[in-house]
Amino acid sequence: MTVRVRFAPSPTGMFHVGGARTALQNWIFAKQHGGAFVLRIEDTDVSRNRPEWTEGILSALDWLGIRRGTYEGPYFQSSFAAEHRAAVEKLAAAGQAYFCDCTREAVQARTGDPHRGYDGHCRGRGLAQALGRALRFRAPDKGQTRVVDLIRGEPTFDNAKIEDFVIARGDGSALFLLANVVDDAAMGITHVLRSEEHLPNTPKQQLLWDALGHTPPIWGHLPVVVNEKRQKLSKRRDKVALESYRDEGYLPETMRNYLMLLGWAPSGDREIVPWSVIESEFRLEDVNPSPAFFDEKKLRAFNGEYIRALPVEEFMAACRPWLTGTDTIPAPPWRPEAFDPDSFAAVAPLAQSRVAVLSEIVASVDFLFLDEPVADEASWAKAMKEGAADLLDATIGAYQALPTWDAESLKTTMEQVGAAHGLKLGKAQAPVRVATTGRTVGLPLFESLAVLGRDRTLARLRAARARLG
Ligand code: GLU
């Protein structure tokens, strides 16, 4: 059997990290089996059918390393309308589906139970197709539907508990459950690997595969992704958009690696592993079916490690979008012409060992490119304690007189100034840091001042001294 898998996102305006995991696992599964990966955009909800949303899906996949042109598609569900209609007609003509005009209220009034589902009222009524009537699949009353799931064994469902579910509208247009099956069958899909959220749909869909005369696929329901409170990740509550991680400065390598660890781990006592290892070691059968915790803190730590592993030139190149701004990343706060590549290159190694996400580069280096970094009130108050004016005076005097302007001399001098004021280096340098960088924390101070240069350092120290009055 030639393996054919598909990733079938519905456009939603953002790319959910859970979807990214599903895409990657399908991608690897196809690759491992010498099979095909098919992309199908499930765009039949007209309100969600926007070209820019589809483009967002393609570029998110590109970013993850699933590059356009290297897979089949994208196909669009909307272009299979004729096949959907044919399936609707076939099922209706064969009596495997029937039209129904019951309202939800009427069903509830009969059953007295809002959770019970449809009671089969229209099964024998022989209603003709008409607008406002739904087409329901005649689910079997007896027996069981057993599905083969690579992650969950063979989940078995009692047919008696499957209601006669709606598969099409009165105008003959198919709904998700049917359209999804018709498309998978038309595309020769052999394995449907998707999120656990769809597991309740699976027995219904397998019945449709059978009713349409096709061999059902093998299924694989990947664990649902949850937050630290064990709640399913939600667009409203949690940061779920892959794009927001990208724009914050997560590397695609980090995301790919981390997403693969949702429910799975490579061999040995390690989690950060090259993609080639993941591609060869990953086994869908080894995925843990329990909900997978999306741990943002861990992801951040991973990203820091990935950043530190880059050659410094690559780190500098990776920072570029935050140093210039893009369509989706805000421009930095300095005048573009104020950016100096040499100064940036001089501090890049210091920043590389400290940032966890690339967007942090802006706050790390802005003191070099802003005309005058201005400390906010809180930082100012925190650093400019009693004695700060004297300390700044002494620092200005000593720094003016320095024969050489290098990190070592700047530090030794600061230590001496501090000692003369009864302060250790950490305390003594606080006013100097805020005066010269506008921040209470940042890159190692004396290396920073060495790059900033004598004139600018002294000008900022004098301005701070003047502000103190
Ligand atoms: N469009 C559906 C979704 O995004 C596809 C489900 C499936 O993979 O079968 O959830």
Low-confidence stretches: none
The ligands bound in this entry are: glutamic acid
Counting H and I runs of at least 4 residues, what is the number of helices? 19
Distance between the termini: 82 Å
Helices and strands: which structural class? mainly alpha
Please give the share of residues in helix: 40-55%
List how many beta strands DSSP finds. Answer: 12
Q: Please list the strands of the largest sheet in the order they lie side by side.
A: 1-2-3
Silhouette: elongated
How much of the polypeptide forms β-strand, as a percent range?
A: 5-15%
Main pleated-sheet profile: 3 strands, parallel
CATH class wording of the domain at 372-468: Mainly Alpha
Topology overview:
Elements: E1 4-7, H1 17-32, E2 36-41, H2 51-64, E3 72-76, H3 81-93, E4 97-100, H4 104-111, E5 134-137, E6 144-146, E7 156-158, E8 166-168, H5 176-186, E9 191-195, H6 202-211, E10 218-222, E11 225-226, H7 242-248, H8 252-260, H9 275-281, E12 292-293, H10 296-308, H11 312-324, H12 341-352, H13 360-369, H14 377-383, H15 388-400, H16 407-420, H17 425-437, H18 445-452, H19 454-468
Helix pairs in contact: 3-5, 5-6, 8-10, 12-13, 15-16, 15-19, 16-17, 16-18
The structure holds glutamic acid (GLU).
Residues 8-10, 42, 180, 192, 194, 198 line the site of glutamic acid.
Give an overview of the whole structure.
This protein has 469 residues and is mainly alpha-helical. It has a domain at 372-468: Arc Repressor Mutant, subunit A (Orthogonal Bundle), CATH 1.10.10. 45% of the residues lie in helices and 10% in strands. The protein contains 19 helices and twelve strands. The protein has helices at 17-32, 51-64, 81-93, 104-111, 176-186, 202-211, 242-248, 252-260, 275-281, 296-308, 312-324, 341-352, 360-369, 377-383, 388-400, 407-420, 425-437, 445-452, 454-468; strands at residues 4-7, 36-41, 72-76, 97-100, 134-137, 144-146, 156-158, 166-168, 191-195, 218-222, 225-226, 292-293. The strands form five sheets. Strands 1-2-3 form a three-stranded parallel sheet. Strands 4-5-8 form a three-stranded antiparallel sheet. The radius of gyration is 31 Å and the shape is elongated. It starts with a strand and ends with a helix. The model has no long low-confidence stretch (mean pLDDT 96). It binds glutamic acid. The site of glutamic acid has 8 residues, from strand 9.
